[in-house]
Amino acid sequence: MTRTTSNVGGCLHDQGMWCPYDHAAAQGIRVVYQSQPERGRWYPRPRIIALSYNLPPTLERCVLAHELGHAHHGHGCDTDAAEREANQWAAGHLLTAEQVAAAARAYPDHPGRWAVDLSVTPKLLLTWLRTPGNYDHADRLYREAA
Ligand SMILES: [Zn+2]
Fold first, then answer.
1. Under a CB-based contact definition with an 8 Å cutoff, are residues 58 and 42 in contact?
2. CA–CA distance from 69 to each of 18, 64, 108, 138 (Å)?
3. What share of the chain is helix, strand, coil (3-state, %, to 5)?
4. Smaller CB count within 10 Å for the chain: N or C?
5. Is the pTM of this model over 0.90?
6. 113 alpha carbon – ligand 1 mean position (Å)
7. Which residues surround ligand 1, an ion (CB under 5 A)?
8. How far is CA 6 from CA 10, 19, 105, in A?
9. How far is the centre of ligand 1, averaged over its atoms, from the C-alpha of 141 (Å)?
């Protein structure tokens, strides 16, 4: 799999990646931009996700996926458990073991590059790697291809 890092703009259809913007549209969730203290906010009843203006594209993609996780789980308030669930949901949709293994093959000595290559924040990649089973799956694929 060849991939580029010219991913500005959020949507990465050409790379076969899950798209949070399409997911929101398919779920009837409207995405709006506004000036607000938090990066993202989920309004359950009008089914609106408000994103802060001027987030860098990769961060915006991850924040939107996180808020979609709140929507998916029906969260109404921001408890620590809800935050964890939303992060895991986002990581599970934004990343696959195949993609993480491909990034590891492309930059075996530079794990710091993986998140950049995968268009996610380092925090989201860590969430993915710490979710039981994920690391082992990606590691297996990495070794198989070596
Ligand atoms: Zn949250």
1. no
2. 14, 9, 30, 23
3. 55, 10, 35
4. C
5. no
6. 25
7. 83, 86
8. 10, 16, 19
9. 31
